[in-house]
Amino acid sequence: MSILQRKVIQSLDGLSDDNLSFLLEMIQRFMKSSEKKEENVNELAINKKIVRRIGSLEGQDLIDADYDIDECNDEIAKMFGVCP
What we know:
Distance between the termini: 46 Å
Radius of gyration: 24 Å
Structural class: mainly alpha
């Protein structure tokens, strides 16, 4: 057990059951299991495939389908002083 883990356990010593219950609930909310992380990664991958525009951009194509945005990378880098 690491020193940090020992300090955490020592800080819990003497807390009421209500406080311990609250801390456990917070830990369970914010600490995701590896299964939940995998589900979230899969969900993000699915959501990335769906392009959803909101507000005033909904339904608009802002960039021409034939436009290659990467053509301008060198020019943009020079504008911001980051030379490739």
